[in-house]
Amino acid sequence: MATSTKSRIVPITKRGLNFEMLMWIFTRLSALAMYALILFAIIGALVMGARTQMNLADVLRWGFMPNVTHVRSTNVPDLAIWSSPLWKVVASLLVLVATAHGVHGLVVICDDYIVKPLGRQIVRYISIVFMISMILIGIYVIWTS
Amino acid sequence: MGLKRNVSLATALRYKGQGPMLTYVLHRIGGLGMAIFITIHILSSFAGGKVGVFTNSIYENWMFQIFIFFFVLFHAINGLRITLLDLFPTLIENQREAIWIEWAVFIPIYGMALFVIIRTGLGG
């Protein structure tokens, strides 16, 4: 049987709008938000002189998490501008968005293997505790490094 | 249901999911890998001390960077494709072409990062 790949668009009123649906949307939108934050960090790095002070891999590492510890091993002459509150805020936002995105991803993977409602409920409780603690620890590391 | 599957491993490996299946598998492995390694990385930065420094030295090793860069970049670029195709569902009809574009974007970026990581790792 040839399956049609033709897409169909259901009007918004006929779509199921529940928590899982919102998390599905959140996963997509948080991906875009991370792209925005990473591009902001990379452009910021270039403005601060990254082109002559570090290599591509270092710039990408800074982009994925603009924390000053990620540029310590490079030739950057002054770390002060790399550890300004602006970058700590950007890094904290990335931690917030990325942790929520990642923990929801783990829940989705778990749901593929755990089918009993109780098991899924337990996975969700664990994920909430895990998410909140990782966000707090991550933000603590950023602001004290 | 659950883990009880009616296909053997050999059948599963012969499954002709092709391009889309490969991206799905790599996206999942990469996502899971990032969740594990970034958790360890944050915790070891938090813990500090001998254990923390040792764990982070593995993380900073260039051989480890080759793996983590592959998965992070692939997850990011594949994620952008998924996001675009999901937010504009009519594009789904061109998903195979989208996957080819995705590889055309991924290979040069990862190739450059790989070149730099290996050259730095070998002390160049």
Question: What does this molecule look like?
Answer:
The complex is a heterodimer of chains A (145) and B (124). Chain A is mostly helical. Chain A has one domain. Chain A is built from five helices and no strands. Chain A has helices spanning 19-47, 50-53, 56-64, 85-113, 117-144. Chain B has a single domain (21-121), classed as 3 helical TM bundles of succinate and fumarate reductases, CATH 1.20.1300. Chain B is 81% helix and 0% strand. The radius of gyration of chain B is 18 Å and the shape is globular. The mean pLDDT of chain B is 86. The interface between A and B is medium-sized, with 33 and 36 residues.
Describe the SSE topology.
The complex is a heterodimer of chains A (145) and B (124).
Chain A: H1 19-47, H2 50-53, H3 56-64, H4 85-113, H5 117-144
Chain B: H1 9-14, H2 18-47, H3 49-60, H4 62-87, H5 95-121
Helix pairs in contact in B: 2-3, 2-4, 4-5
Oligomer: heterodimer
* Strand portion of chain A: under 5%
Q: What distance lies between the first and last C-alpha atoms of chain B, to the nearest angstrom?
A: 54 Å
Q: Outline the low-pLDDT stretches of chain B.
A: none
From the helix content, strand content and strand pairing of chain A, which structural class follows? mainly alpha
Q: Which secondary-structure class do the elements of chain B indicate? A: mainly alpha
- Please state the average pLDDT score of chain A: 87
Radius of gyration of chain B: 18 Å
The shape of chain B, in one word, is: globular
